[in-house]
Design goal:
Elements (H helix, E strand, L loop, with lengths): L5 E3 L2 H12 L8 E5 L5 E6 L2 E19 L5 E13 L23 H5 L8 H15 L12
Parallel strand pairs: 1-5
Antiparallel strand pairs: 2-3, 3-4, 4-5
């Protein structure tokens, strides 16, 4: 398996990265990405410019594929995190999980597409579990009237 990650950058930085990769005479000679001790916040450096970066969890796992013959796709990785590079003035995300997926249909995916956690009373769950254990052992549940 390859080691892969998703790097989301502002359009101006994307142009500089593309220029760096395509032209050997580019002014931006270096790329660097370093994270602080918490492992979630860091700095992306291209040339002499520094940009804040954050490591965010995606709402679902993305699969990555590649092909050698334009016919057969081979799965190369499961990607569950994204490195988001921001402009200097942009506000940092407040959560560890990114609310949106990578494509427009996955906008606000966590709220729209996934089942919500049920609201359960822990005492009710304990009581039902206790009653089920009594019933499985041949007894009857407490506070239940049996009608014949």
């Amino acid at each position: 398996m390859d080691e892969q990650f998703i790097l989301r950058v502002p359009p101006s930085v994307a142009e500089r990265i593309e220029r760096l990769l395509n032209e050997s005479t580019s002014d931006d000679k270096s790329l660097d990405l370093s994270f602080s001790d918490d492992g979630r916040n860091g700095t992306f450096v291209i040339g002499d410019d520094h940009f804040p970066a954050s490591l965010l969890d995606l709402p679902c796992i993305e699969e990555s594929y590649k092909t050698y013959d334009d016919g057969v796709l081979i799965k190369t990785a499961d990607v569950a995190q994204m490195i988001m590079v921001r402009e200097e003035g942009d506000v940092a995300p407040d959560a560890v999980e990114y609310r949106h997926g990578l494509t427009p249909p996955m906008r606000d995916a966590r709220r729209r597409r996934f089942r919500r956690e049920p609201d359960l009373n822990p005492e009710l769950v304990r009581r039902v579990e206790k009653d089920l254990l009594y019933i499985m052992n041949g007894g009857t549940a407490e506070n239940v009237d049996i009608l014949s």
